[in-house]
Amino acid sequence: MRTTFLAYGLIIATLSLLSCEKKNAIPLAEQVQVSRPLFGCDAYEAFDLTTLSSSLFFDEMAQFGPYFLYGGLSSLQIREGYSGPIVAEVGNHRATHFHSYNDRMFVYGTDGIYELLSNGNLVQRTSVGFWDLETTPEGLLIGVPFSDSWRIMAIDPVDFTFQPYLTEYPRGRCVTLGDLHFSADGSLWAVDCDNELLQFQNGALVSREIAGESDFWGEGDNYPLDDSIFFLDYQGRTIAVTKCGFLFYEILEYDGTQWTTLFRVNYEDENLSEKASELLRGAPNEAVIKGQHLYVMTNRGIHEFDLESGYEDPMEAVLNIKDPGLAQDASYELFQDDQAEWYVLNTQKRVVRLGCE
């Protein structure tokens, strides 16, 4: 009898193991979502920047010396350390974007350009509003002014006077430029409010990619939504992330000659998988490259793309990560400070230091 019970026990244990193996048999690359810490560690420290009932909103983060800056919509908060005392907190302030320039920190927006000084004071340098600021390879400060927003101006960082950076060029129907980025070949890329991709070299327009006439913007007449276009540098190349709601999602690479698609999913694709549908549902807030991985921070998880995967099926190179240590259903900003510490800022007004070595 004892032998019979032992035999039954072995059969049940074997079936249990087979059942567990079957349950977890789906490869990570095929799972709709993968639950794990973002960088493989969970030594997190969370800090609430303000109460949930506060009207302040943050989706951008920067550091200047000992100060951490948080901005978004019309909210600005500056602290000593990422969770230290508040140095400044301003609501209804339409200068909430950050640009580091030659050991200086500018806070800009439609209310003008401010400078954060080393003593923590915030000083307005000009009342002229700017959509975007960028630094040229030669070290010039340039920007797109709120008025005359089809132009890119060179900004004198001493007296904050302006002069045209570009020569005259044929303009499209919608002329507000943004998303300025210099690629390794010296080209300046910009996107106008018709979502046409413009390439400038030596101050002159050399190409214009038009949605519906180019592979750059998905297919057909799909247009990326505002703030769903990100340019990043990667090993001498430029990576672009573009997304248009649930219509399409594309990641491209520019090698100095042409744009090549690394990953694309379109809602009209035949046999659209559940994983692809979930990727399309996410609304991007930020894109960051760490090592060989591209991270796209969305309100439905974090998309991790392996830029060196070499997979024949690009879908195998992407994971949709749900980090149990981070707030769910929140858009994220991923930021690295000058000590190589990583932070996640979310729209629920919380900053989390990841503590990953």
Chain-wise SSE layout:
Elements: H1 2-23, E1 34-35, E2 45-48, E3 60-64, E4 67-72, E5 75-80, E6 86-90, E7 95-101, E8 104-109, E9 112-116, E10 122-126, E11 130-135, E12 141-145, E13 153-155, E14 162-164, E15 177-182, E16 188-192, E17 197-201, E18 204-209, E19 229-234, E20 237-244, E21 248-254, E22 259-266, H2 274-281, E23 284-290, E24 293-298, E25 301-306, E26 318-322, E27 332-336, E28 342-346, E29 350-353
Parallel strand pairs: 1-26
Antiparallel strand pairs: 2-29, 3-4, 4-5, 5-6, 7-8, 8-9, 9-10, 11-12, 12-13, 13-14, 15-16, 16-17, 17-18, 19-20, 20-21, 21-22, 23-24, 24-25, 25-26, 27-28, 28-29
List keywords for this structure.
357 residues; mainly beta; 5-stranded mixed sheet; 4-stranded antiparallel sheet; globular
Strand ordering within the main sheet: 1-26-25-24-23
Q: Per DSSP, what share of the residues sits in E-state strands of 2 or more residues?
A: 35-45%
Distance between the termini: 56 Å
How many helical elements? 2
Helical residues, percent: under 10%
Shape: globular
Report the sheet with the most strands, covering strand number, pairing sense and barrel closure: 5 strands, mixed
According to DSSP, the number of beta strands is 29
Strand-pairing-aware structural class = mainly beta
Mean pLDDT: 84
List low-pLDDT spans: 1-25
The value of Rg in angstroms is 23 Å
